[in-house]
Design brief:
elongated; homodimer; 9-stranded mixed sheet; alpha/beta; 8-stranded parallel sheet
Chain lengths: ~375, ~375
């Protein structure tokens, strides 16, 4: 099977670029002497999780219980669900623990911690710390931190933070500063818990930009980057280059307007998502950049300017006319996404290539909740 | 099963509101004496399609071949695929025709029309006309219109336009003007084709705002609205009211910050989509409005201000403090979406209620391509 034969739109994953990205992050984790617990919220694939861990079903992070259940079915036994749990969801979490999975849930809430602490199943929980993103997590200096620790009792497994504010960085130095904020937050929190007589084994941070650029991670035990696997146009402004983008959407030209130097493709807001992350960067890519079927940027900065449900309007940058003789209706193109996690979520599988146009594997994905 | 028992996030569909919306559109179509060929790109559900057609598997519009195949499996026999077809996709279209489906494809391209005209299977095609949206379609006065008609030959079934520029309207009058532009475009195009000796049976227009507010539709044979079934916060600014919103996302509170008058919910950019349609209206709803489990707006204008992959940050409007004693972690809320089509696409089923909190049915959905 070749790319030319695939139905469009669909997801194409370049394994050569993927493996290079995976190895680069393993090198970073080794250099810092920390455990790599990759976040699978982007890839949502057991095949990719194994590749990320050098072939084994090692420790992973997920964003939903549906992902946790999927990876457990695929043999993964050490899973952190990195979004605040609710009392109502503890039943599903406990069911996984009962099958032998070492599952960590997270919370920043005293009432939830009490439910976890008194649950009939031996759950494990990390306390979420706010290191500056101000999304979730308790303050490092708050009294609530110790209250939650006490409520968890023997189920307290450690502390965790996500320095998502690294996404507002545009330089390596800025992202490294966020890594320091994350590190300080979790190590101070861990010290406070330990000083109060509690154990705090896991000290976890993570976001792709902050981990990629971290200077030192003293006191941290593990990192949880995720989107580094695929890269995307937004990450190319923060943590990688456009050459590191492993994931593209294969699409077909479905219309052409030579007079306006634009084409219409069958990838719109469902196929690409309505993410506009690059709007805030120096290189606004609209809803994605159109490359040729070999993922080469041969059309200049051909951006998806408008995204309708199943239509994308791609307009040339004006510097050169598009080669309309090579862009007949039906021509296949590859579209680099703004945000890989959101784009991938519309699909149930990856068509895998090794740099060329032959499909060498098809890998499934888990979506939903 | 009650809403309280459902895993979150999930889709809740209020059948009472749905049926009211469906009946209102049937009344509009009857008043104009046109066929209602509802667009199923929003609902993507055979159950809902039947309800929309008064219980029968009548004529429908879809946006993808996957939808066409799904509805064909569910007994629908008259289907228009309203996104430009490519030569490579004609095989799948033909396979449906071979099973007895009357399938209309659409095109605005001479080369594609030749492929359709000479295809071994008796395909039927509509010529797409640009009525002012400037997305796809040939100009009413263009020579290409007649060229395409000739290339299609006996497979020419009619003309079609989508007045998507009605989405930039904020008044009924504006949307009615778009309906006139649509009507003029397709009737003039049909007349030109007929004057050239071609038959042009179907004269099709459609978008929810333009059909809802149309003054007259003389010469039009069918309308193709879609999102009217569910409504959403954007449509509430153009074609309906907030009371007409049938679709919400059931979510759970996963965090609270009393000092900042905000809560965190487990519905983020995957559960809601990153659509920001209401940004351009008088009532910017962020990524959605948070109502209580009964879909009542009891929290003031509580908007999802920030949407992360699995986290939504909802901030009160500042006029009153949120009732945190009723918003503990685990509390269920209903979130009204900006754009129902995109939000629904993240889910594989609807939990149906009849105004109350009891789940009276579960209806599947078709996603993907």
């Amino acid at each position: 099977m070749r790319l030319e034969d695939l139905p469009t739109p669909c997801l194409v994953l370049d394994r050569i670029v993927l493996e290079r990205n995976l190895e680069a992050m393993r090198v970073i984790a080794r250099r810092h002497g920390v455990l790599l617990r990759p976040h699978l919220k982007t890839a949502k694939s057991a095949d990719i999780a194994r590749l990320a861990l050098g072939g084994e079903a090692g420790p992973i992070t997920v964003s939903t219980l549906a992902e946790a259940e999927y990876f457990a079915r695929h043999g993964f036994r050490d899973i952190t669900v990195a979004a605040g749990i609710t009392p109502q969801k503890l039943g599903r979490a406990a069911a996984l623990v009962e099958t032998g999975v070492m599952l960590n849930v997270i919370t920043d809430d005293v009432a939830v911690a009490k439910c976890i602490g008194s649950h009939i199943t031996e759950l494990r929980a990390l306390i979420e710390i706010d290191s500056g993103e101000h999304r979730a997590g308790v303050g490092v200096d708050s009294e609530v931190l110790l209250e939650i620790g006490k409520a968890l009792g023997s189920r307290l497994a450690g502390v965790l933070t996500h320095g998502g504010h690294s996404y507002s960085c545009r330089t390596a130095d800025c992202a490294a500063d966020v890594a320091e904020e994350e590190t300080t937050a979790v190590t101070v929190a861990a010290d406070r818990l330990r000083s109060a007589g509690m154990s705090c084994e896991t000290v976890s941070i993570g976001s792709t930009p902050s981990v990629t650029h971290a200077r030192r991670l003293e006191g941290v035990t593990e990192v949880r980057p995720g989107v580094y696997m695929f890269g995307d146009l937004f990450q190319a402004e923060v943590s990688c280059t456009r050459d590191d983008i492993a994931l593209t959407v294969l699409a077909s030209v479905i219309g052409r307007r030579e007079g306006e130097n634009r084409i219409l493709v069958d990838a719109g807001s469902l196929a690409l998502s309505k993410d506009r992350s690059t709007e805030s960067t120096e290189h606004d890519a609209g809803y994605g950049l159109v490359w040729d079927i070999g993922a080469k940027p041969v059309y200049g900065e051909l951006r998806i300017e408008r995204a309708y449900q199943e239509h994308g309007v791609a307009a040339g940058d004006g510097s050169t006319p598009l080669p309309f003789d090579q862009l007949g209706v039906g021509t296949k193109v590859r579209i680099a996404p703004n945000q890989a996690c959101l784009t991938a979520a519309a699909y149930d599988c990856y068509y895998v290539v090794d740099g060329g146009d032959e499909v060498v594997a098809v890998w499934d994905r888990i979506n939903g909740w």
